[in-house]
Structure formats: C-alpha cells, structure tokens
Design a protein that fits this description.
With 202 residues, this protein is of the alpha/beta class. It has 7 helices and 6 strands, in the order E-H-E-H-H-E-H-H-E-H-E-E-H. Strands 1, 2, 3, 4, 5 and 6 form a 6-stranded parallel sheet that branches. Helix 1 crosses helix 7. The longest helix is centred in the last third of the chain and has 22 residues.
C-alpha cells in the first residue's frame, strides 16, 4: 500500500516561512509514514514591486498549480500574516480552485497551517481562524499543531506558534530569524501531522 502524500505549500516574502517549512518537512519525514513534496504559492506581485520591498529572490522550489494540488492526500500550508489573515497571494490561489470544489477533490483530506508575523501578537491565531472557511468549503479536515509536544517556551523569550500552528516572529524589519524553539515546534507539528494523515489514509 502506497504511503499518503503530503504537500507542504508555502508563501514567503522574506524567507521566514520558508525556513519554518524546512522544519515542517523534517518532522513529516521523521515519521517515516508519509511521502513529502514541497511547493510555493504563485507570486502575484511584479518583480519591480518585490525589489522595492527589498524582498530576496524566491527559492528554487516548484510553484503549485490547481491541478497538482489535487494529487496530495494532505496539506500543510504556510504563509505570513497580513492584518490577521492570509496574504493576497494565498487568497488568489484558492479563489482559483473552484474546479476542485465542484468535484470535491480535496474533501476529507487533512490540512494544517504554520505562520510568520512581525510582532508577537501580530495575528498568528486569527490568521488560522480566518483561513478555516477555505478548509471547510473544500471539506478538508483541520489538524491543529499539537505544539505542546515541543515543550513550553515560557514567558522569558519571544516565541511564535500556538496550538493552531507553528510560527515565528520576524520583527518589524524582518531581521529576526526563527528560534530553536520555533523550529522544534515545527518539527513536532510535521511529525504529529504525518501520524494523523497516515491514520486517516488507512
């Protein structure tokens, strides 16, 4: 019996979400129960606008397409927060998935999320909450991060993530990088998600 296939699909402007996605992938592979493929959401901003934002070049990772999305058995979606919700790039992509919705192509498949915000209370939980309608309308099953398996960061450090999903705090200028705790929580999320995806597939 073939192992379930999990797609990690992310959008990253300055690289923070991309970094978290690597630990998500590590956790998925650590489980040895799923096959993993990594993609990024299509960019909607022009190169000139990205340059004016001082955004680094995109990583050499394939861009997801609507048809390709249907091939997965589960998903972990990663994106930065934009005013408490997913960025326009992610919304634009899912606005184009009507053909999958009509066929119920994503129905019953597990999905989780991970994030990046500029500040510690910048909306990681509301971003997850506001993205749930996308999962619900496609019939996908939301899988929380179960982040307690990565330990408790306490109150003496800045930490991203929550039970909704792993995350990091980038700082207002984007200079702050994911911490050891942030990455460990992402590994834990990937591993726990793989276990659930395998059970649902069975």
């Amino acid at each position: 019996m073939a192992r379930p296939k999990v797609f990690v699909v992310f959008y990253s402007t300055y690289g923070h979400v991309h970094t978290i996605s690597k630990s998500i992938k590590e956790g998925l592979e650590k489980s040895a129960q799923v096959d993993v493929e990594v993609y990024q959401f299509p960019e909607t901003l022009s190169e000139s606008v990205l340059q004016s934002m001082y955004a680094p070049p995109k990583p050499d990772i394939p861009v997801i397409t609507v048809d390709k999305l249907a091939e997965a058995d589960g998903f972990l979606f990663g994106f930065p927060t934009r005013f408490g919700s997913a960025p326009a790039q992610v919304k634009a992509f899912f606005d184009s998935t009507g053909s999958l919705w009509v066929k119920g192509a994503l129905s019953g498949k597990p999905a989780g999320m991970f994030f990046s915000t500029a500040s510690q209370h910048g909306g990681q939980e509301t971003t997850a909450f506001s993205f749930l309608p996308v999962l619900a309308h496609h019939g996908m099953v939301f899988v929380p991060a179960l982040s307690t398996s990565a330990g408790n960061p306490g109150v003496d450090q800045v930490a991203g993530g929550s039970p909704w999903g792993a995350g990091t705090v980038a700082g207002s200028d984007g200079a702050r990088q994911p911490t050891e705790y942030d990455l460990a929580a992402a590994v834990a999320q990937g591993e726990s998600f793989a276990n659930i995806a395998a059970k649902l597939s069975a």
